[in-house]
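User: Sequence in, structure out. Go.
Assistant: Echoing your sequence, followed by the structure tokens.
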Amino acid sequence: MKKKIVIGLIAAIAFQFVVLSGMYVSAQMPLWTGTEIKLKTVPVDPRSLFRGNYARLEYEISRVDANLFPPGKRLRNGEVVYVSLEPGKNALYEFSEVSLQKPQSGLFLRGRVSDRWFEGPGGSVRIKYGIEALFAPKEKALALEKELADGGVAVVKVSGGGKARLQGVIAQ
């Protein structure tokens, strides 16, 4: 009886280790194998008392025209969308198109709908990609706030499935 309990505990610990390791590897995969791109960004909210020192970043691709989605399609918060990117000026990547289906080729980001403004003409959809916050020590966050006042460039790694991870931000 005691041997079964010990084996069960070891199995439970091993299962938790495997799940946590899988989550870590999945989160790091874009940084290890992804394609590096650069996106124009501006800081929105430099610090939070609850989350620590970080810069919340806003991208041009964070708001997409609601008319680019299929007519009559009501998007839900958390719905997965894919934003295709193409190289633009100054080696910065820019919005190309948005889709509810995963593109077969090209560079794209996988995001989730986080908000909608004004359904229909003139409306927009906010999309989050998981690259909207850059955490830093207090001194570096304060310096980053001043450096990014006029905008910056985010260096992002993108995996083949569109998963993105923020590597850093460069002041312009």
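User: And one key feature?
Assistant: The mean pLDDT is 86.
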